[in-house]
Amino acid sequence: MKKPKLWEMSGSEILAGVSRKLGRHVYFRPHLLKLDAPVVAFTFDDFPVSVFENAAPALEDAGMLGTFYLASGLMQRVENGQLIVDQEMVATLSGRGHEIGGHTHGHINVQKTPRRDLMADVRRNDEEIARIVGSARPVSFAYPFGMISVPSKLALMHHYPGLRGIKVGTNSGLIDLAHLKAQELYDCSNDSSSIDRMLDDVERRCGWLIFYTHDVREDPTNIGCSPAFFSQVVDKVRRRGIKVESVIDTLKRIGVA
């Protein structure tokens, strides 16, 4: 679809665009990140069955843990052509030490949701996850669709110690805990050399690199990757000796969770 010209947009569309840009680029919870070594996180949005079957075992075989962002209202339903996990799978991965993070209950666009409805939705998701895994509510959150705005960011910024978006980059120096940067892990947009550049960058900066993807399966969607490519990335990180931990563990280590 062709992007409309500014003069073709309504006032509300212009304001929404400005709000998105401010939400993405203005730091609402600045934090000076100080790490003694670089760290990588592997995160998964929507939590399709394929990541339970393929990604989690690949991480575990390498002695690593991941963060799986669950929208509880999607469980056992199909999202973007992918079957989403059931409660037993969620509990199983939590029991193995993986983090289950928040992703709203209804997988909603937070930018378009009134604050009262947004907070009711995320609290419902928190309660569902806590019930399934038998622990406190989630510590980290990923914005569905990567969508963000000033009102939604203000509403959520103190509800979770760390919130991840899809703004590209490595977290280093002054970071925004309300909108952590991340790098997509998609077959259609990454290759071996691009991953090497990302790992070079996180080592040089002594920063925090958060990978995200959706499905991990043969013939992946355009927002997923194949098991072979995922395992290749895991092996690259392992061979470099870069620490891998869940988002919650890094948040705890830097003293914000």
From TrEMBL:
Cross-referenced SUPFAM superfamilies, in alphabetical order? Glycoside hydrolase/deacetylase
Gene3D superfamilies (alphabetical): Glycoside hydrolase/deacetylase
Top-level taxon in the UniProt lineage:
Bacteria
Supply the alphabetized keyword list.
Signal
Recorded hits in InterPro entries, A to Z, give: Glyco_hydro/deAcase_b/a-brl (IPR011330), NODB_dom (IPR002509), Polysacch_Deacetylase (IPR051398)
Q: Which PROSITE patterns match?
A: NODB
Q: Which Pfam families match?
A: Polysacc_deac_1 (PF01522)
Record GO biological process = carbohydrate metabolic process
Residue ranges spanning the membrane: these are none
Residue ranges annotated for the NodB homology domain, each copy included: 38-257
- For the keyword Signal, the answer is yes
A Gene Ontology molecular function term for this protein is: hydrolase activity, acting on carbon-nitrogen (but not peptide) bonds
Q: Report the sequence similarity comment from the record.
A: Belongs to the polysaccharide deacetylase family.
What is this protein for, i.e. what is its function? Is involved in generating a small heat-stable compound (Nod), an acylated oligomer of N-acetylglucosamine, that stimulates mitosis in various plant protoplasts.
User: Know the name of this protein?
Assistant: Chitooligosaccharide deacetylase
Q: Record the organism.
A: Neorhizobium galegae bv. orientalis str. HAMBI 540
